[in-house]
Amino acid sequence: MRLGNAPLTIALIVINIVLYAADFFTGGKLADRYEMLPAAVQQGEWWRFLTYGFMHGSWPHVLINMYALFQAGAFVEYCYGTPRYAIIYLAGLIGGGVAAYLTTIATGEPTVGASGAIMGVFAAIVVLGFKLPRLRNELLRAAGFPILLTLGSGLVIPHVSNWGHVGGLLGGGAMSALLNPVRGRELGPIEPET
């Protein structure tokens, strides 16, 4: 697998880092405008269901997320192909945004970060484990630890939207279940649909 097989993953990483740098040097003005903020969504700013996933709260936040995206995204993009991977990423992003919105209406707490979308990408690895039975154990192990680590850290670190993580898992997992990998036959026989 070469980086040339993962152009969207590389583009997403670059965009997230550039936007974090721009937000940092403008004193957080980008995040204020594009984070998931329930009150703003209720006033019609629906684009926040997408843009929140490109805002990050700190350098460690963006770097950890981009490392995870590189690890999982390059593989999933290779397996599913770029167009299907884009749909999976988008489903995780929106699923995470909707879950974060629904669970912060009462508090009004803002949500930022690509982790909901990234959890959707890890969910796609789990789904691939069931579509490619020969690789099932390896893929479930590869995705299971980061998923459990993310959900576990969300339980102990304040102001982390664990529901956003769950929403991303559900959105990305559901979408990847509907799509077949384009390079699956190279990795092993695809489990027939029932």
Question: Please, could you describe this protein's structure?
Answer:
There is one protein chain. With 194 residues, the protein is mainly α. It has a single domain (3-187), classed as Rhomboid-like fold, CATH 1.20.1540.10. It is built from 10 helices and no strands. It has helices at 7-25, 29-34, 38-42, 48-51, 59-80, 82-104, 115-131, 136-156, 162-178, 184-187. Helix 1 runs antiparallel to helix 5 (59-80), helix 6 (82-104) packs antiparallel against helix 9 (162-178) and helix 7 runs parallel beside helix 9 (162-178). The protein is globular, with a radius of gyration of 16 Å. The two termini are 30 Å apart. The mean pLDDT is 92.
What key attributes describe this structure?
194 residues; mainly alpha; 71% helix; Rhomboid-like fold; 10 helices
Share of helical residues = over 70%
Q: Supply the CATH superfamily name.
A: Rhomboid-like
Order of helices and strands: HHHHHHHHHH
Q: Determine the CATH topology.
A: Rhomboid-like fold
Weakly predicted, low-confidence segments: none
Q: Please tell me what the overall shape is.
A: globular
Distance between the amino and carboxyl termini: 30 Å
Structural class: mainly alpha
How many domains is the backbone divided into? 1
The CATH architecture classification is Up-down Bundle
The number of helical runs is 10
CATH class: Mainly Alpha
Question: How many whole angstroms does the radius of gyration measure?
Answer: 16 Å
Record field, number of beta strands: 0
| Largest sheet, strands/sense/barrel | none
Chain-averaged pLDDT: 92
Tell me the β content: under 5%
